[in-house]
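Fold it.
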Amino acid sequence: MIGKYDIEIYNKKVHYFLTVKRNITVIQGFSATGKTELIRLISQYESFGTSSGITLKSDVPCKVLSGPDWEVVLKSISNSIIFIDENSTFTKSKDFAELLSESDNYFVIVTRDDLYELSYSIDEIYGLKDVSDTQKYKSFHKVYNEMYKLYNFELNRDYNVNTIITEDSNSGFDFYHHIFGDKCITSNGKSKIYEKVVSEKDAILAIVDGAAFGAEIGKIFRYIKSNKKDCVIYAPESFEYILLCSNILDVDRKILDETYNYANSNEYISWERFYSKYLVDISQGTIYKYNKGKLNSSYLTAGSIEKIVDQLPDLLNELRIQPV
């Protein structure tokens, strides 16, 4: 399944607006914000249609997945947006992760937990907020709910970064170590970033692949907040995405701007994998042939480095070592 979908669902009391554009969208946030009611409305509409008093606007079917027979039901659904309530504990299982990776559906999962079996984007973790008092809706006697991103990180310059940690131990680390020197270390995987953040005493900059880091970010964010840890998170889609944006290669910009129209959900569990495959494909037969395991030296020439660094935030540029 590909595409970007706007969904509206409402009755006389509540009105929801959602946008879904990746295979996994996670809704978390505070209690009493309408998450359970959203699932209830979709379930009622699925069962009774317009006679339920509910209106649902979507270009593809919206369905609710629940109950002990969820595996059988999931296998029967195709090209739909599937909503799952937080009481459905199967979302934390390996069996669910395997079926999701093969599915041609999109999933909107309401949960309080970090779903470590799944690869989902930091940018697709949302809360729901009541926007009834905004100028657009304040004259109506109804509760209006919209999605908002839970994690927005600013690269804070208020302290000096002494250690740079990258989850990547391969080509991405090769590049960052080249421009940052020995202050750059690797955690050898996304699941170990948290351990590094906790163990390092100095101020930290952590570089992660945002497109697949969603399950890890909650634990790190909670630790940073509760311990007032000096830690900055830089979360581009992936290192390959940065290379694609650098204009080193001839890239169709539309593919980067509208990835949701190209990254088929049953082929790519995350956009990070899509960008890796795309970069490998378009670099074949060029001096920039990409290998995820070890960075091609053509990306480390002075001209290439400047093009890549141009894609990085100013703070990262300031941390570069001086060329020898």
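The two ends are 49 Å apart (CA to CA).
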